[in-house]
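Dear Dr. V.,

Thank you for agreeing to look over these. As mentioned in my earlier message, I'm a first-year student in the group and I'm still getting used to reading structure tokens, so any feedback on how I've presented them would be very welcome. I ran two proteins. I've put each sequence directly above its structure. The first is here:
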Amino acid sequence: MKFLDEWAADWRGGVWMKCVISQTIFANLATLPKPANTDAVTPGLPIEPVGGHGRNEIPTADHDSNGWPQSGRNAALRALRRGLAFHVAGDQHLGSTIRYGIDEWNDAGWAVCVPAVANIFPRRWYPPEPGRNPRPHDARCTGEFLDGFGNKVTVAAVFNPQAFPHEPRPLHQRAPGYGIVRFDRRLRRIHVTN
């Protein structure tokens, strides 16, 4: 995927690309079925069939993210925006490519969260309603959302746990994997593969 065309403008001082690496993203892409209010239930949740979408789920306020406190999150995003930096992270256990919003959707930078290589804690993103303004033909879990903390986030891609037929199934059905972020210095483009 190619991103940042409209966002990457200032490259003075010999800088050829800008990236921030942190433990996790500044949003909380996680849903849980009602009435769960803790992610302790996550490892035991049913795995959806390929192409399935969890039912009766709502965004959760999981503090295992950098989406909280919102004031600190927004201050960090403003700093990334000023620096025109791309964000690479992990630890949400859910491979995703997102664009941040602070005051409005899409007014801050892009981030990729690489999935865990061997994921025993399969977070999932099954929002109850489709996102606003999705790209044509994208899954219903993409588009503009408020996460469980009320943060604005645009989900471009997410890799939910699904019942893939590959062995060993307990591993492959929990959305394991890795991410590759390629920085094209000549064109100043970033290519994300999750």
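The second protein is here, in the same arrangement:
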Amino acid sequence: MIKEAIATAATRDEAIQKAKAALNAPLDADVKFEIIQDAQKKVLGLFGGKDAKVRAYYEAPDEVKAEPKKVESAPAKAPVKAQEVPAKKEEKKELSSEDDAAIRNYLTTIIKGMGIEDIQITSHEEDEETVYELITSESHGALIGRHGETLDSIQYIVRLFANKNTSGKKKVSLNVGDYREKRAESLKEFAARSAAQVLKYGRNVKLDPMNPYERRIIHTAIQAIEGVTSHSVGYDSERRVIITLEEGVQPTHGDRRRGGNRGGKGGYNRGRGGNRGAKPAYKPEVAADRAPRSDVAGSSRYGKIEVKKAPAEEE
């Protein structure tokens, strides 16, 4: 029987030595080698290149297999009925006290680094996340930022810290006062107004880029409004929601950007006076006693141009 081993290395010699070591053949064995793939250098030391691949093998004497002993089979036992095991209730994942303390300390360090010294942090558990409430007597605007951008940035950093330095798998969220609740209500009202425009005029409405939390609020609000649907486009920080009419739904007012077709009269030109008949061609007024103009040489300003002909050749 043939025993073999295959190895790869940067050079052919290294691959041969590795294949020989992996084969572990006896000293008296006639080991042979087969170069499956030779090594290739990289272009400019950066691109391409291949390792050498070598097969080492030798012929070993066939092993005599001992016949297996017959084992008397035991009498079959009566099947045991499987007992139903009650399903375990899912335990709510909560942050340990050590993890909670680490997140609070890290969050306090960030906020004080922003120049806000008066800060208190409380937390409560929700179904899918642990919410940390930031309480301060100073301006909330410094923590929230424009459209919540500062608060979202702090939340992103804290989540990275929690995923790397804590054993809990629960998501961490931040809130300042009742900002998240007010922002959610504002987004719901904005979604309703945008959906009303889509239903009225039939034109898609493209919203500004939003984070995943805010896009989720928009999508949820649109699902509750009949006749419109929503989807997201773009990537990363430029991802935004687009609200459109559902298939088969007609707008209530149509598209009036170009005046529409109001009874088939006027159309676009109707707003500009409509088609009130073509203007008559321009016709200059000529005095009745004016002499008729004669197109003769003398009447030209520069006179008539005579082309000089070459004299005819004698035959």
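From my reading of the second output: Residues 95 and 168 are 5 Å apart (CA to CA). Residues 179-201 form the longest helix (23 residues). Does that match how you would interpret it?

Kind regards,
E.
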